TrEMBL record:
Native source organism of the sequence: Duganella phyllosphaerae
Record protein name field: Rhamnogalacturonan acetylesterase RhgT
Claim: Hydrolase is one of the keywords in the record: yes
Lineage top rank: taxon: Bacteria
Pfam families: Lipase_GDSL_2
Length: 450
């Protein structure tokens, strides 16, 4: 059966105009030239059973650029009237840059199911959705797909984001390619169909360092990767944070320009830097109450000129305790500078620094270790979090968003937005399944604070 999608006529031309990089371990990665036409597309997939208006996908359909969809290498799946697997796998569909509503029908008539879905680079969308035999549970989530291309808008020149090579072009390529990749996970994932349709939806853009950015493999994780789980469908999260970076890098590598080129009036930009900005003191290139505040101002003013809503976030603390078991503060000046900037500029402020301290205190000296990445046995990373730690911090950010009165808070998922960091979720009850990708490579930046 021919692929069923809308607006695909321009795709062959687009491919001929693209510059293509073949990346190890990933499908083709396309960077599109400025001015290239892009059309809206929609995909409708069914698995193993023909359905009018749908593309039937069989288990042996590996991703193929000509076809425009398929399973990524390593997928061990069954299509028996529905899609099932005994281990996590990836499914990819080509799409132009934009926001999309993804609707999945989970479950089947003859089997129970348990499905978790992450998008692009391990962004949590659906968490442990369980069904009993005979029940189909329909869920929708909103995702953002982007490329490095920066289109020209007033005040922003055309160009491309200065990606970090090879990090963003190899292990993190899924965050930038012209495709939507879904990680299908869970103890017994079962999917009847997947519908992907373009949508005009508000977007929450993220800027920040490694504690915000999409980390490519376990055990590392960030609150930015967990954030989508805590929002209803109808709003997308676009994470442009990157490991090792500062407000200054956001400007020089054109990450802010990329956001401004995609932004619609009323969109939200959440910004959290500080860990790596500290290096500027050591290198005699600035400080929290001088250059750091000035770079915050530049971001806030640019976002407002383009109709966006800036949200300044102070950095969470590192894991350090004194002899009495009290969390120590290493980022106080940067947290204070972020707060001052928000007050002076009249911008929304989330004090994640202040919320992280009671969180770590509640977990304790030993218990807090379970919130941080341990890439090798006995080698704890006291800056970067694992899935549990980032899940808790994401709830703190969502709560801060609501407390700050940011309009995007209206999309917070039911039951969330009232997180008390002094009473975190029990570690034993945390059950988000791990992704199949693993890396013991420490995220860039903050090398002096392991």
């Amino acid at each position: 059966m021919q692929p069923h999608r809308q607006g695909a006529a321009a795709l062959p031309v687009a491919r001929r105009l693209s510059s293509v990089l073949l990346l190890a371990g990933f499908s083709t990665f396309a960077i599109f030239v400025p001015g290239m036409a892009q059309s809206a597309e929609a995909w409708h997939f069914t698995f193993g059973a023909a359905k009018p208006g749908y593309t039937t996908v069989d288990a042996g359909m590996a991703y193929d650029a000509k076809r425009g969809f398929g399973f990524e290498p390593g997928a061990e799946v069954r299509t028996v009237g529905y899609l099932a697997a005994s281990k996590p796998f990836y499914f990819t569909a080509d799409l132009p840059e934009g926001n999309y509503n993804v609707t999945v029908k989970l479950g089947a008539r003859d089997t129970a199911s348990n499905t978790t879905i992450k998008s692009e680079l391990r962004r949590l969308m659906l968490e442990n959705v369980s069904t009993v035999a005979g029940v189909i549970d329909t869920r929708t989530f909103t995702v953002n797909v982007r490329t490095p291309r920066i289109r020209a808008v007033p005040g922003v020149a055309a160009g491309v984001v200065d990606l970090k090579v090879p990090r963003e072009t190899v292990s993190e390529a899924r965050a930038w390619d012209r495709r939507l990749t879904l990680e299908i996970n869970g103890s017994h994932p079962v999917i009847e169909s997947i519908d992907i349709v373009p949508v005009t939806a508000p977007t929450i853009f993220l800027l920040g360092d490694s504690t915000v950015s999409d980390q490519p493999g376990e055990p590392y994780n960030s609150w930015g990767q967990m954030l989508p789980r805590f929002f209803k469908p109808g709003i997308a999260v676009a994470n442009l944070a990157q490991s090792g970076e500062t407000y200054r890098d956001s400007l020089s590598r054109r990450r802010l320009d990329k956001i401004l080129s995609m932004m619609r009036p009323g969109d939200t930009v959440m910004m959290q830097f500080g860990h790596n900005d500290q290096k500027q003191i050591k290198d005699n290139k600035g400080g929290p109450f001088t250059t750091y505040k000035d770079e915050i101002r530049q971001h806030v003013e640019a976002i407002r000129r383009h109709g966006g809503i800036p949200v300044i976030i102070s950095s969470m603390e590192r894991r350090r305790f004194d002899n009495a078991g009290k969390p120590q503060e290493t980022l106080t000046d940067y947290a204070a500078a972020a707060c001052q900037s928000a007050e002076e500029l009249g911008a929304a402020f989330i004090d994640l620094h202040a919320m992280s301290l009671p969180l770590y205190a509640a977990l304790g000296v030993e218990g807090s270790k379970l919130a941080f990445a341990e890439p090798e046995p006995g080698k704890l990373d006291n800056t970067h979090h694992n899935a549990y730690g980032s899940y808790e911090l994401a709830q703190a950010v969502v709560t801060g968003l609501r407390q700050a009165g940011v309009p995007a808070a209206q999309w917070i998922a039911d039951g969330y937005g009232n997180f008390d960091p002094s009473h975190p979720d029990p570690v034993a009850k945390f059950a988000v399944p791990a992704s199949p990708t693993f890396s013991n490579e420490r995220p860039l930046g903050d090398e002096g604070n392991k």
